[in-house]
Amino acid sequence: MVEQIRKNFSSDNVVPACPAVMSALAAANADAAPAYGGDAWTARLDDVVADIFEHPVKVFPVATGTAANALALAALAPPYAAILCDESAHIAQSECAAPDFFTGGARLVTIPSEDGRMTPEALSYKLGRLPADDVHNPLPTALSLTQATEWGTVYPPAHIAELTARARSRNLAVHMDGARLANAIAHLGCSPAEATWKAGIDVLSLGMTKNGAMAAEAVVFFNPAHAEQFARRRKRSGHDWSKQRFLSAQILACLEDDLWLNNARHANAMAQRLAGGLFRHPGSRMLYETQANEIFVLLPDRAIAHLRAAGFAFHDWDTPEGVDGTVIRLVTSYYTRIEDVDALLETLSEI
Ligand SMILES: Cc1ncc(COP(=O)(O)O)c(C=O)c1O
């Protein structure tokens, strides 16, 4: 079983929760505690996150990234709104229209990009097509950026600042899907503040599950006006856990002693090692520069079959038409060891 999971590169959510999180859950389980966020763990969240992000915040734990994104966007977008995002965004591709549902009908307007990072020009072009004074189109009220992106690339903070400035000039609020924000920060070497509110982010879905938690994400509001009645939104969605201490304890454990960033640094380093080896394989082609912990690589079908026959797991991804081979996605995590990476590369070298 352990052997199998060590060969599983299909996602960063297939691995176990990390020991610090399990200990924190056990500690939170030692006694009774007040329900619905009245507990001592939840009481610390705002201060701990504010310290790390160097800004006052309101923090709301939820159990999934989809809930974090959909509820955060619902706080920014009325039913007649347009939410702009990259065409690859998880909110547009993989959340079963949850943002549309929780906003009561807002439309996701997608913007094409080369590598998951929308350009300021493409954003301005799309905004230009959605004039505020024309009742025939939905009113853009929110921009959502994914960091790290769906293609494993990372926006530099200056790029984010340029996008948020253009959004702000049209009165849009800006959401960040930070399911892999820790990996982005680890790559950039910047502070959490520089990666978020200093670059113009208003609301953050701060991911923990892919980075060592069992199931916990934090919706972080840098602007308290947007947090108004968020507790009710969360309640209606069924994410107001009565035993909220178990969500909060996971988030605190991840943030303590920089565990979230150390885990992400390790995951990124494993991705670099893996990408470097894959790059050297004849017939391979990296689709994007590996900057976080996801690798998208085109490999000959024979090589892919050989890896699978040896027990390695990963997902096939969209393969451009007419190319010889298949694009696969490989994801590393805090749990990936050097020997796991090397075992995959060695198996590949047998081809
Ligand atoms: C970028 C991004 N955002 C959000 C999510 C949603 O997370 P969940 O599956 O916990 O709803 C994912 C999960 O794959 C993701 O990759």
Automatic annotation (TrEMBL):
<dbReference type="GO" id="GO:0006567">
    <property type="term" value="P:L-threonine catabolic process"/>
</dbReference>
<dbReference type="InterPro" id="IPR015424">
    <property type="entry name" value="PyrdxlP-dep_Trfase"/>
</dbReference>
<dbReference type="GO" id="GO:0004793">
    <property type="term" value="F:threonine aldolase activity"/>
</dbReference>
<comment type="similarity">
    <text>Belongs to the threonine aldolase family.</text>
</comment>
<dbReference type="InterPro" id="IPR001597">
    <property type="entry name" value="ArAA_b-elim_lyase/Thr_aldolase"/>
</dbReference>
<protein>
    <recommendedName>
        <fullName>L-threonine aldolase</fullName>
        <ecNumber>4.1.2.48</ecNumber>
    </recommendedName>
</protein>
<dbReference type="Pfam" id="PF01212">
    <property type="entry name" value="Beta_elim_lyase"/>
</dbReference>
<keyword id="KW-0663">Pyridoxal phosphate</keyword>
<keyword id="KW-0456">Lyase</keyword>
<dbReference type="InterPro" id="IPR026273">
    <property type="entry name" value="Low_specificity_L-TA_bact"/>
</dbReference>
<feature type="domain" description="Aromatic amino acid beta-eliminating lyase/threonine aldolase">
    <location>
        <begin position="9"/>
        <end position="294"/>
    </location>
</feature>
<comment type="function">
    <text>Catalyzes the cleavage of L-allo-threonine and L-threonine to glycine and acetaldehyde.</text>
</comment>
<dbReference type="InterPro" id="IPR015422">
    <property type="entry name" value="PyrdxlP-dep_Trfase_small"/>
</dbReference>
<comment type="subunit">
    <text>Homotetramer.</text>
</comment>
<dbReference type="InterPro" id="IPR015421">
    <property type="entry name" value="PyrdxlP-dep_Trfase_major"/>
</dbReference>
